[in-house]
Amino acid sequence: MNQDQEPKQPNGPEGNSEQSSLVSKLQSLGQTNVPQMEGSSIHCLTIVGQIEGHVQLPPNNKTTKYEHLIPQLVAIEQNPKIEGLLIILNTVGGDVEAGLAISEMIASLSKPSVSLVLGGGHSIGVPIAVSANYSFIAETATMTIHPVRLTGLVIGVPQTFEYLDKMQERVINFVTSHSGITEEKFKELMFSKGNLTRDIGTNVIGKDAVSDGLINEVGGVGQAIAKLNEMMEQNRLKKTNDGLEVIQ
């Protein structure tokens, strides 16, 4: 065979099987594999646009589908080559239950994780940002904190209100237990009047998010990766020490 000639794509059952496998991965994960930075043990997970939950959003919306992220997080936990997770956030928020599901998955990982809010980490993006072991926010980035909202027709107002109230408590409990902000301060920001036009809630910018205890530090990609590398090294040393203790 001529060396310059490109190999032909496999035809027949074998080729069809390979194509169907790729299609299956695209449908379940949104991509064919779990991407990893070349030559690095860090995986970068991006959460952008609107977080799509049980209802499919219009095709012109920039979305992050939770059914794509959850299998990726499972793969990250199982992959021994991945030692740390970097989460890049620029989201307007979205489905509350989907956002909480992603947050719980990140918080329960055994591997070190660092989040970085760039542009915005609004609404249900707040729990996702604080779900990592350590969080950063860009100096110009913002985070919108507001009560849980519902759009569309409501049937059974008292029952719906009770459901939303309990969901809101879940968000508050998660954020306060995974960050340095107090429940009183978070509720104050959530129910503040006049901060957002014709609405209640607060827009928190960079340094304010840190001073309120919501985010750990102001910084960018360099600081986030440096912190993650530091945490990964500590994790390696802990595993080594644990192994030596078992041998002794």
Automatic annotation (TrEMBL):
Q: Would the keyword Hydrolase be found if you checked this record's keyword annotation?
A: yes
Provide ranges: composition bias, Polar residues.
Answer: 14-24
Q: Which InterPro entries match?
A: ClpP/crotonase-like_dom_sf, ClpP/TepA
Q: Which Gene3D superfamilies match?
A: 2-enoyl-CoA Hydratase, Chain A, domain 1
Q: Where is this region: Disordered?
A: 1-24
An MF annotation (GO) of this entry:
peptidase activity
Q: Its Gene Ontology biological processes? A: proteolysis
Top-level lineage group: Bacteria
UniProt KW keywords: Hydrolase, Protease
What is the name listed in the Swiss-Prot or TrEMBL entry for this protein?
ATP-dependent Clp protease proteolytic subunit
Native species: Fictibacillus terranigra
User: What taxonomic classification does the UniProt entry list for its organism?
Assistant: Bacteria, Bacillati, Bacillota, Bacilli, Bacillales
